[in-house]
Every structure is written in structure tokens, then in C-alpha cells.
Amino acid sequence: MLLFGPLSGSHEEVPPNVNAPIAIGQDIIGIFLMIAILMQARGSGLSATFGGDSSVYRSRRGIERRLWQFTIVLAVLFCFFSEASFLIH
Fold first, then answer.
1. Strand partners of residue 13
2. Does residue 10 belong to any structural domain of this protein?
3. Would you give the DSSP letter of residue 2?
4. 46 in a domain, yes or no?
5. Among residues 29, 40, 38, 41, which one has the least CA distance to residue 66?
6. What's CA 44's distance to the chain center, in Å?
7. End-to-end distance of the chain based on CA atoms, in angstroms?
């Protein structure tokens, strides 16, 4: 990108502010993170909306536990990509 005009001072090429592979990776991880979070819906139905949920605490098992762990991994990766995009530009 070339800057021209009174504010540029010279006609030097300015590097882009965004690293494309990191930005694309962050977008992909963000999409999967949103999907993983939305798949973890606890209460369903109209009664749960108004506080009529009578669920009891229970531990996660099977695929629910793997989805929860996958969500944590995606969140950590998203934070890593955010830091990398800040540091590498």
C-alpha cells in the first residue's frame, strides 16, 4: 500500500496491519467456538426461560464432556491467535 499526500511525508510502502493467515485462523476458530458454545444449551423449553428449570447438578459424561473440553481448547486457541495477531503484524 502506498501512501500519498501531505500526511505521508514520503512515498514509502507501508506494511499491512493484518497478518492474513492469523486472521483467517482466528475467524475459523471463532466460528467453531460459537458453534461449540451454542451446542451446550442447558435448559430447553419455555419453563426454563422463566426460571422453572428443575435441573439438578450432575457431572458431564460422554460426548457432553468432550464438547466441553473441546470448547476450552478452542477458547485457549482463540486467545493465542489474538495475542499472535497483536504481536505479529
1. 2
2. no
3. B
4. no
5. 40
6. 24
7. 15
The 10s digit of each residue's pLDDT in 32-81 is 999 999 988 765 544 555 565 555 666 778 888 899 999 999 999 999 99
**In the chain, what are the helix, strand and coil shares in percent, each to the nearest 5?**
55, 0, 45
Phi/psi class of residue 19: alpha, beta or left (left: φ > 0; alpha: ψ in -120 to 50)?
beta
Residue 50 lies in a domain: no
Nearest to 77 by CA among 88, 89, 85, 65: 85
Report the predicted TM-score, pTM, of the whole model to 2 decimal places: 0.64
Q: How many domains does the chain have?
A: 1
Rounded to whole angstroms, the Cα distance separating 63 from 16 reads 42
Q: 75: domain range?
A: 20-41+57-87
53 φ/ψ angles, rounded to the nearest 5 degrees: -75, 125
Amino acid at 40: Q
CB half-sphere exposure, 54, CA atoms < 13 A? 0
